């Protein structure tokens, strides 16, 4: 709990308040240049129902589509989107230049493209950064052929596909006995299922924040935390909502590389993404309610303070009036001005009147 709170100490820097997560704008036509491009890391799985082998550290020039055996299935994964390597692999597959551009532009909206020689999809894998308590995305592109599937990723240090690799090494797994379009389903299913994991992490943050506000244990950075969570939900929704249209397009597609008997599997993914979208909407509503609750609690505190100050001001009003009257610059005609007990009489009135007012306020249950 303390760690989560201390993460927001960064807002002590006034310049940080001017910064916001870029959730509302992205230019898909601009290549990612925030880090230097290294050489792509290419791996390939070659599998049949009876055998599976893998090769790691391939060069882009070694990926020759014409050398693929029609009796085998191939999964080629390329990490780190080096422009030269991607173009070399893309030209080997025979990809349209626009598809290569989509692969290299890492802010694409999830979509499906159909060509005679391939079927392509683009979407985003989402991760939850436990250190920064933020959602991060990585674009992944798939190119499906008759007996091959190419996947393009930009991050070489993390992905969600290790369970699929384990399935490929298992001779009884279904993915070993199916065509490449089933492998595409398996990878898409892993991506969508991980959306639930990310949502669960965000949900834990929302529940913790709601509990703090309900118990009145929040601090001055709570509004910043609410706004941060709201931006994370917007970021998440922006990357997941179009996936519903993507899966729907696959279900409706009659492309010859998509086996009709696998349509039910994609319908299962569609059901999952609908649940993800509904949960996202629920979390967005909860965030709005938490924000309203926080503002209500803050206003309530402010009202209590204002009521206290108003009572104090009212109780001091008689003393102010009496002191003002006896403080006027008149020497004649002022009663008790020269009386030997004048000071004590005025002071007693200043004390007795507020006490009577306080008693009256209590009887009226004004505080």
Description:
The protein has helices at residues 2-6, 83-93, 97-104, 162-168, 180-214, 222-252, 263-326, 342-363; strands at residues 41-47, 52-58, 73-79, 111-114, 119-129, 134-144, 148-153. With 367 residues, it is α+β, with helices and mostly antiparallel strands. It folds into 2 domains: 2-297, CorA soluble domain-like (Beta Polymerase, domain 2, 2-Layer Sandwich), CATH 3.30.460.20; 307-363, Methane Monooxygenase Hydroxylase, Chain G, domain 1 (Up-down Bundle). The protein has a 7-stranded mixed sheet, with helices on both faces. The two termini are 35 Å apart.
Number of E-type strands: 7
* Count of distinct structural domains: 2
Helix count from the secondary structure assignment: 8
In N-to-C order, the SSE pattern is: HEEEHHEEEEHHHHH
- What is the assigned CATH homologous superfamily of the largest domain? CorA soluble domain-like
CATH second-level architecture of the largest domain: 2-Layer Sandwich
- 3D shape: rod-shaped
Mean pLDDT: 85
Which residue ranges are poorly predicted, with pLDDT under 50 across at least 5 consecutive positions? Answer: 1-19
Could you tell me the CATH topology label of the largest domain.
Beta Polymerase, domain 2
* Widest sheet, order of strands: 2-1-3-7-6-5-4
Classify the beta-strand content into a percent band. Answer: 5-15%
Strand count, sense and closure of the main sheet? 7 strands, mixed
Which CATH C-level class of the largest domain is it? Alpha Beta
Q: What percent of the residues sit in helical stretches (DSSP H or I)?
A: 40-55%
